[in-house]
Amino acid sequence: VAYITYDRQDGAVWKSFLQLHIYFVSGGFRKIKQDELLQVAMEHEEEEFPKIIEERKSWPFFYHLSPFRTNIIDWLPFKKTDRVLEIGSGCGAITGALAKRVGSVTCIDLSKKRSLVNAYRNKKQDNITIMVGNFKDIEPHLPCDYDYVLLIGVFEYGRAYIGGETPYEDFMSICNRHRKDSGRLVIAIENKFGLKYWAGCREDHLGTYFTGIEGYHTGGVARTFTRRGLEEILHKTGISEYAFYYPYPDYKFPTTIYSDEYMPKKGELSNNLRNFDRDRVLLFDEKQVFDQVIEEGEFSLFSNSYLLLIGKKPQTVYAKFSNDRAKAWAIRTLIHKSAAGTFLVEKQPNDKDANAHIVHTYQAYEALSRRYEGTKIRMNECKRTPQSIVFPFCQGRTLEELLDERLDEQAAEGFRKLIEEYMHWLSYNEEANVSNIDFIFPNILVDGDTWHVIDYEWTFDRTVPAKDIAFRAFYNYLLGGEGRKACEELLMQDVLHLTEEEKQQAIQDEQDFQHYVTGDRASVSAMRELIGFKAYELSGMEAYCVYAAAKYVSQVFYDYGEGFSQENSILIHDCFTEEKDVHFTVDVPKGVKQIRIDPCSYRCAVTVKDIAAGEQHFAKDNMAVNGVWANENCVIFDTEDPNLVFACEGADRLDVTLEVAELPKSLTATLIEAVTPKGNGLKRFFH
User: Could you tell me the pTM of the whole model?
Assistant: First the structure.
């Protein structure tokens, strides 16, 4: 048992100290290179992590240190008396958030290095115990009365944790017995049928395309499941009290938590470009496919992740996190379901810094209600509580959904009428000097003759031109999918009459507003750009294939004694590997006197690894080239028609292995000058 004491010092004055108990349980450690993360945790406070994440532009730093990781559990109804067991706590991505809300947190992790990161980053907490070692060795010594047992991104490793013939059933049973009867077991895991995998994201654990969809036939330790697969495990373990939740876009950095009681609506799932950890391809528009999945009632099958709660269901059926902002604006929206089946909407500050924003939203409700008094525009009724504001749940369909419906039906007149009515109400009673710049399509619920405005947090006590607010609504609508591009001319030119210059300025103004909201912090979407992994569109891949088919091809010419000609030649496709390694084997026709190989059609350096015709091998001494030999094996070609020529009478087979490196024109000339002896002519062969 190692007992670690952490001390904090301010100048020469010892201000406080904290003890964290770390138990090193037998079972062996797996050393992981996480020294940089540990150094950051030792030398910096958590408040500094966002800046460090942006500077490092690294997926591991973002994944392990980002505060947005805690969204997956921040909506759960923890109490200060709760005791929590966190299995697979790693570098403590959610440990600190738990410690601030519950009585005690017991962490288990196999890695000593990760556990030290966890300990140092949470050195201000005095209610965390971290146990380091193999779960099977630690588990028998744990009590069975935890209020929460958490496996966040851990259950898929059940085979490694437990082993045996039924590792996942055993793992779930073992974990479940450590919660009290009134407690909850919480499992966050990817869905192997998640839509992102069909759309071109790589499997999270193996980094390969379609691995989970294909049933993990290539191996690997981790296994993820569909909802049905998880329910089969629940059935086999005798667990009947459970509920599924659906983190979107996934459980790692969720912005929204849906449930069976509150599923997503068409048009809501448009934030799908989240490949922080590796490149991906884009096989289709996920937003459009999600809309179809929702319409067919199959969202639970294709949700990218699951959050499985075993035990009593909480009242919260929906959570949306707007904490990807400066602290002054960071809030969350929850929908609760009462025992009677009614819904209540609640907005909470993420922390005390956003209290003023919550108060401002209530004041906006009062001012906007006065502006639209007596019209069909109704501000969703807002009431204050000591810590939040609450609203009744409004029925209806979003204006965004209605507009999409008109587009799908190609009902241009119906689409135009909705836009005209929107513009009318946007301009109504402007002299009231109160403007809701968030008067955008998803925030308007149409219920019969009533338009409910369900979000008005970005309201200002001044007149903002209707044209500016409309641009925000139109611009954000057009970003929601390729299918909406059809109405761009109508919205931007026919309605707003924007010149291209005015449009670009409006886009800049919108970006400036987003920067105002996020403050000095990079948004989650911006982090994807900073980390730099690519998303390759299918159209671009197809264009590249056409380009590569023409560029990465070799050609072999046969001379029957009359010289080389196109008629007596063959193109060798699919002979390039990684755009540089060339290998092919072809039959040589009878009567051939000479062979010419054109390895490519661009300036290059060619390394001859092997050229064999029959029993004879060809190299510098018995081959002519229209380039310059740099050494015994490498030729530099300052031409877009490089070729190698040799005599080969009687050969019936040609085997070629080359390495071809493309060179820019300026470098080619420099290399040729460097390898050409002074005073000697260039040894070239010109056909």
Answer: 0.82
